[in-house]
Design a protein that fits this description.
Chain lengths: ~425, ~100
Amino acid sequence: MEKFDAIVVGAGPSGNAAAYTLAKAGLSVIQIERGEYPGSKNVQGAILYSDALERIFPEFRDEAPLERHIIEQRMWLLDDDSHIATDYRSDAFNKQPYNRYTILRAQFDKWFSQKVSDAGALVICETTVTDLILDGNRVVGVRTDRENGDLFADVVVLADGVNSLLAKKAGFHPELKAGDVALAVKEILFLPQETVESRFNVKEGEGVVIEMIGKITQGMMGTGFLYTNNESITIGVGCMLSDFKESGVSPYLLLEKMKAHPSIKPLIQGGEMKEYTAHLIPEGGLKAMPQIYGDGWMIVGDSGMFVNAVHREGSNLAMTTGRLAAETIIDLRQAGKQMTRDNLAVYRAKLDDSFVMKDLAKYKDMPGVFHANPQFFTTYPELVNNAARHMLTVDGVDKKTKEREILKSFTASRSLFGLMGDAFKMWRAMR
Amino acid sequence: MNVNVEEKLFQNRYKVDHGRPHISIVNPDVCTNECKTQPCTKICPAACYKAEGNGTVSLISDGCLECGTCRIICGEHANVDWSYPRGGYGILFKFG
């Protein structure tokens, strides 16, 4: 029976980063993907952050299928029929090398996977891993749904995504809690390239991101988003699953209402919908993170809760964890060491030393603060929109009176102590 | 506002594994008698779960987007048996 140096389960960003790094170092790697082709099961907004990929693949810009580089970020606070915005656009984002891009994951993952194959890994698609094979506490391989489909290796890298059934079955981590995951739904709407460019005031290759908070999530903790691709727009909304459960609001209804918002509707008008997707995002942060390594196994990407929900970052954490897991394996092999729990602890140390754990530690209290304080997603967007409308409506009322009325509306909704408390809670969670 | 989810799902590509659904309800009586809110019937983004007039919940997983929502929101009852489709089957994202 053939035994590999490493098995990688899943061909998303984390699995591809791991498999590529391992294969490039000359290890024998088999990667198992359940989709018909790599990317066919994968869903993301999607923004690609260059830095994480550059560290794996410095010349990716020359060949990866990228949509638009982002030159402008809009942040909207929405009321029922209005929005107030901050907008950051910079020509600095228009200079090579670009910092981030919109991508279509099905295309991008296919490209990345080809690189994995080219580096010498054996990539097997249309195969679902059903179980981990254990020898006592040690993972020695995987069972697949192919006939005689058992595979063995020194170490198994679990890059099997947010649901991570394998780690659960093996008892490495418990079932996800509804409060630790967000459910996002989105659509891709096709429009002529010129229409995208004129509507968003950009030139060829340039793109815009809009992040939205407010009444569009109907009181739930969540955000809406709109990304410009070459000839399409991705629009979606995501909220904590626990909030969906409590509110009983259907996600497709939420999305449809958001698309009908008077600030959003003109931007997507006439777009031809060609795909509707849904995906869970692990947003529990550091406090919800499971054990990420053990005897003969490591967890990378979404399956390990590696998402920075505050900054909407995930794929870069996925690629970085995949790369660091692979580098850990390579180092251990070179030192002639076994893939034991004690030795694989180096992976955790590498993560602690990187932006991954530093950022997750910085925002560890954030999910809790937002959970306990829904006013950040409801009351405040409404108050600031009302304030703007009041100030900007010329109706014979003097500005001082308007200011007084606006302040009164704030204290009436939240009380002065409430406002100060919120500011403090925000500061404490963000610092 | 009324939304036709089937119309949305119609745009997607699937390879349905006929006769081998990858999700099933463990004990239908639990849905009928012990689950008052039946959140799966509202929150499943593909509307695979339907609340029937007689209090039961029906499940047709052909349009499943494989997100995992139903399994997690059924937390207290753990009444959803959820696994991935066989290799190559299920949703096939064109754009993702």
